[in-house]
Amino acid sequence: MRTVLLTGFEPFESEPINPSWEAVRALDGVRIGNGPDDLDAAIIVARQLPCVFGAANDALADLLDAIHPVLVIAVGQAGGRPEMSVERVAINVDDARIADNAGAQPVDTRIAEEGPAAYFSSLPIKAIVRDMRAAGVPASVSQTAGTFVCNHVFYGLMHLLATQGVPAGIRGGFIHIPYLPEQAARHPGQPSLSLALMIEGIRCAVTTALATTNDIREQGGQTH
Question: Which of 143, 166, 206, 174 is nearest to 4 (CA)?
């Protein structure tokens, strides 16, 4: 049976929880497909990454070696965003507004010295957004994954898939999710999304990515 790897992060910046981990761990062991004998079925494996530059990508590389997934979706917290953000592009720079959980705060640092300036997601990002919205989950395509550990992992994932001799055909990408309501209660004025909607959105993303080879072509950009 095929395996799908979902990753979420440990809490950071004094938050007691990280919604990315709460959402993906709820899907650990979930089967996507019609039944145990369905050759197209897949099982979800969820794992937590440290919110630490370098160590997060090392842990991700170890997971790829151990699990051999056909699909990898990394998920991270984006407090202040009002909906699930399916990321389009990862850029080759760390430029941290705050320190990571190990106290590191790189500025204007390349993630991969010999890597390209950017990688595009290999997920069907617009089809995922369409299907999330159809399921009642607020979602949009995002043009920036920031320059903190989330982008670091997104770029690291795509660089691994492009350069490290992993089996051809593995697809990967990144999704940012908002605060949970209990987090937003400590940040007045900030938007939030329920855990149930986050879980449903990620389940939609996995199902759509497994079933969709070529992305749909429809408007998904912004003017600024």
Answer: 206
Whole-angstrom distance, CA of residue 106 vs CA of residue 111: 10
Active-site residue flag, 204: no
CA dist 41 and 210 (Å) reads 9
Residue 222: per-residue pLDDT: 84
Catalytic position from the list 83, 87, 159, 200: 87
182 a catalytic residue: no
Mean pLDDT to the nearest integer, 32-45 = 78
> Of the residues 150, 159, 200, 204, which is catalytic?
150
Calculate the alpha carbon distances from 207 to 60, 63, 131, 190 in Å: 22, 21, 9, 30
| Number of Cβ within a 10 Å radius of residue 38 | 12
Distance between CA atoms of 208 and 153, rounded to whole angstroms? 22
- Answer yes or no: 87 catalytic: yes
This prediction's pTM: 0.96
Task: For 67-104, write each residue's pLDDT tens digit.
Answer: 999 999 999 999 999 999 999 999 999 999 999 999 99
Q: Which of 51, 83, 159, 176 is catalytic?
A: 176
Domain ranges across the chain: 2-211
Report DSSP state, residue 218: -
Q: How many CB atoms lie within 10 A of CB 5?
A: 24
**How far is residue 207 CA from its own chain's centroid?**
15
Beta strand pairing status for 71-77 and 42-49? unpaired
For the domain spanning 2-211, the CATH number is 3.40.630.20
Please check whether residue 205 is in contact with residue 137, taking contact to mean a CB–CB distance below 8 angstroms: no
Per-residue pLDDT at 223:
77
